Amino acid sequence: MNTTSPIRVLVVDDSKSSRQLLAHIIESDPTIKIVGFAEDGEKALDWLKANDADVITMDLFMPKINGFEVSRKIMETKPIPIVIVSSAYNPQDTEQGFKALEAGALAFIGKPAGMGDPNYSHRAKEIVDTIKIIAEVKLIKRRTTKRIASAPPSEHAVTEHRIEAVAIGASLGGPIALQTILSSLPKNFPVPIFIVQHIAHGFTQGFVNWLQTYSTLHIVMGENNMRASPGICYVAPDGFDFQIKERNIISLSPTCSTFLCPSVGSLFASMATTYGPRCVGVLLTGMGRDGALELLAMKNRGAYTIAQDEESCLMFGMPQEAIKLGAARMVLPLNDIAATLNNLVQRNLLH
């Protein structure tokens, strides 16, 4: 894409009012231009036969072909960055949005109900920002959703301390990365896992439900004062600061310490304080720098720290910032992370 030209967007949505609202939001930014509209999936596929776009915004529920199927067909025939923009807030419905990520869509965000929506400004900015970010993602082929066996973990993936917990942070591209890791960990994984995934408000429970379908681990939404147990993954709810204040005790606060809420940095900082060297921190794909400084704090306290490598990241921002700071003891391809985590916790059980 020529960076001096506007980002060309195809809007796919069966609602005329939604198309008008998205047009108002998207073209409020002079660097973005809508080049086409499609009322359903079939019309979108027909439009793409004769036209091109840099980004596609896709509704989830449409007649004839839904957003999941359209995303799959586009990624198989003419790969273009797709962002699912949906107003569905039923957890069972939002699971379909995450299935669209499996099919190749890059992001799943909320659609404002209208200009009177109290969250209108926030959601409008999120739509514009996401379009601008994923327009820069280079797509070669549809990402596989099959489980891929990890390479043998490095013999250097050993600590002198017994591991008591794992913390993972992710943003753009994180759902698929987390799916890959959690689907490869054994049911009897001997420590709790704490997860912060940047996600649109209202979609976290659907995200938890979707992840659960791929993992033998038990995956739940973290709750205040909940005591964490081995073999369970605790996902941070949106709108709360997510920390571990005491060994295996989750603390949620509606007063967030940073702009992002939940933030990876807040979780990692609490891990450094609470567990010191007895934990592992993993920073996955994502934009920005959330978690980088705090991963360094974990490393400085003796924790084992991992950053996802550039080649396997959808967006290298967060891991790159951590690597620049020297915060990662290891930089690993996505498909090696689960085996390394298992290796770390299993080898140190007797310490």
Alpha-carbon Rg, integer: 20 Å
How many strands, what sense, and barrel or not for the largest sheet? 7 strands, parallel
Helix- and strand-based class?
alpha/beta
Give the integer mean of the pLDDT values.
89
* DSSP E strands, number: 14
What is the CATH topology classification name of the largest domain? Rossmann fold
Quickly count the domains.
Answer: 2
Summarize the entry for a quick read.
Helices cover 34% and strands 20% of the residues.
Task: Please give a handful of descriptors for the protein shown.
351 residues, alpha/beta, Rossmann fold, 2 domains, seven-stranded parallel beta sheet, five-stranded parallel beta sheet, 34% helix
How would you sum up this structure, described in words?
The chain is of the alpha/beta class. The chain folds into two domains: 7-134, Rossmann fold (3-Layer(aba) Sandwich); 165-347, Rossmann fold. It is 34% helix and 20% strand. It has helices spanning 16-26, 41-50, 67-77, 91-103, 120-134, 174-182, 204-212, 264-275, 292-300, 317-324, 334-347; strands at residues 7-12, 32-38, 55-58, 82-86, 107-110, 165-170, 193-197, 218-221, 232-235, 241-246, 249-253, 279-283, 304-308, 330-332. The strands form three sheets. It has a seven-stranded parallel beta sheet with strand order 8-9-7-6-12-13-14, with helices on both faces. It has a five-stranded parallel beta sheet with strand order 2-1-3-4-5, sandwiched between helices. Helix 2 (41-50) packs parallel to helix 3 and helix 3 packs parallel to helix 4. It is elongated and about 60 Å long. The termini are far apart. The model is unreliable at 140-155 (pLDDT under 50).
